[in-house]
Design brief:
There is one protein chain. The chain has 423 residues and is of the alpha+beta class. The protein is 29% helix and 27% strand. The strands form 4 sheets. Strands 4, 11, 12, 13, 14, 15, 16, 17 and 18 form a 9-stranded mixed beta sheet that branches. It folds into 2 domains: 208 residues, 3-Layer(bba) Sandwich (FAD/NAD(P)-binding domain); 184 residues, no CATH class. The longest helix is centred in the last third of the chain and has 17 residues. The radius of gyration is 21 Å and the shape is globular. The chain binds flavin-adenine dinucleotide. Flavin-adenine dinucleotide binds next to helix 1, strand 3, strand 13, strand 14 and helix 11.
């Protein structure tokens, strides 16, 4: 390993891979990727469904339709995967419109958690063939921007000409500290909070035509997110102060478990006195942990509707048709933990959705709370190449410029183009 590289990339998620691929395929610049884990652990490692639609994961304040589509085409060409076309969803589109909901259906591919490593390894091996160096199990701990080097957890210093921070939404607080130290202005006034629903797959019949439909209810500011089916599982994601829920599914190599899950998230925009999405996520997440005795809360939909807590027996009893896949949740009462504003909006959207896909309101469905997505740092970029200071870039989810694999990769490709052009 050298002590200086033309481009140092921190993180090895899709934004980092896209960036390293672009630079190493089109220039002779030296590139180093630094990853704190032994394999990246975002959505490419989990479930890995990839959608090719700019409306899905490209925040519109940072992307034009034209630019997003340009890079989506590159993502598709680079990944070489078998993207599936959308089936006949005209009925659902018509119904959604009737209830004031937008249905976004896109070409997509689902790899599955058990097979995602094959894809990651293929991409990483391609980077290595292009002479990209990759340093695993190594964390960047601090930045000395004026001297153009970073410090690693083993004490080593690595110099750079360009530094790209691609550290994902889990590092939202860490990156805020870097921005504060470097005098980079940012806002962080939004956060997405909601529930995850688990249901029998046949209660969500649109899944016969589409793996991951996205419904957007602009009136309630609620959207569906991250649908999983096949062998689908609900899981916990650990943050410093709380657990958030998430979902994923195994590939078609595994027998289906007959279940599906998806999140319904409400976007909360904050004003004084709590102006930080990160802070609000902490308040809401900690409250849920307090009410749930240290774990997220699960409740049968019929109990939620009737305003009573779910008891443990409700999840063992076969009359409900299925048991929850995430066992380590507390059977309880979501309404005791969740702000009314969030719950009432989500409940209203669920009722509308039930008229589009009959079964969303089935009494046996399981609601899990909280699902929190706090990837909305908005640094003040110098330009539309996601540069926050000369030669310093914040890319992917941590910069608030993507909300999914394809957009994250697109942001890396875009910055890669810029770095090559300006050398
Ligand atoms: C469980 C889960 C499932 C998801 N499923 C999907 C899905 O199916 N489809 C989809 O489109 N999106 C999905 N997403 C969202 C998707 O993962 C992200 O939008 C995307 O991965 C963002 O890419 P990124 O490159 O910005 O960051 P990430 O993929 O999060 O990668 C960031 C990397 O940086 C590393 N890192 C952080 N800090 C440091 C540091 N200081 N030093 C060194 N390394 C560091 C992290 O370990 C991580 O590997 C999912 C997310 C999760 C968490």
């Amino acid at each position: 390993m050298k002590d200086r590289y033309d481009v140092v990339v921190v993180g090895s998620g899709p934004s980092a891979i896209g960036l390293a691929h672009k630079i190493s395929s089109n220039s002779s610049k030296s590139v180093l990727i630094i990853e704190k884990l032994n394999v990246q652990n975002g959505g490419m490692r989990n479930d890995c469904k990839i959608s090719l639609d700019y409306r899905k994961s490209f925040p519109e304040e940072y992307w034009t339709e034209e630019s997003a589509n340009y890079y989506l085409k590159e993502v598709e060409e680079y990944l070489k995967l078998d993207f599936k076309d959308v089936g006949d969803i005209s009925y659902y589109t018509k119904q959604s419109k009737k209830y004031g909901i937008e249905l976004i259906a896109s070409r997509q591919v689902h790899i599955g958690t058990d097979r995602s490593l094959e894809l990651i390894n293929r991409l990483i091996n391609g980077l290595k063939e292009n002479n990209v160096e990759i340093l695993l199990n190594t964390e960047m701990v601090s930045l000395k921007y004026n001297d153009r080097y970073i410090v690693l957890d083993n004490g080593n210093k690595i110099g750079f000409t360009d530094l790209c921070l691609c550290t994902g939404r889990k590092s939202a607080t860490w990156i805020q500290n870097i921005m504060k130290e470097e005098g980079i202005e940012f806002i962080d006034n939004t956060v997405d909070i909601g529930i995850r629903i688990e249901m029998r797959k046949d209660s969500y019949n649109i899944l016969e035509h589409l793996y991951d439909p996205k419904f957007v209810d602009n009136i309630n500011k609620v959207r569906s997110f991250c649908t999983n089916s096949g062998h689908a599982l609900v899981v916990k994601e650990k943050y410093k102060d709380f657990y958030s829920l998430n979902g994923h599914a195994l590939s078609s190599n595994y027998a289906p478990n007959g279940l599906a899950n998806f999140a319904l998230l409400k976007t909360i925009t904050l004003t004084e006195p709590v102006v930080s999405g990160n802070d609000y996520a902490k308040i809401v997440g900690k409250t849920a942990m307090n009410v749930g005795g240290g774990n997220p809360i699960m409740q049968r939909l019929c109990d939620f509707r009737d305003g009573v807590r779910s008891k443990v027996e409700k999840f063992e009893n076969s009359i409900y048709g299925f048991s929850p896949t995430l066992k380590t949740c507390t059977a309880g009462d979501i309404a005791l933990a969740a702000p009314m504003k969030i719950i009432s909006s989500i409940w209203s959207t669920m009722k509308k959705l039930d008229s589009v896909c009959y079964g969303v309101m089935s009494p046996q469905n399981v609601l899990y709370y909280p699902e929190i997505k706090k990837y909305m740092n908005k640094p003040k970029f110098m330009d539309n190449n996601f540069q926050v200071k000369d030669n310093l870039y914040i890319i992917g989810d941590v910069g608030g410029i993507s909300r999914g694999i394809s957009a994250a990769m697109a942001s890396g490709l875009k910055v890669g183009d810029y770095i090559i052009k300006t050398c």
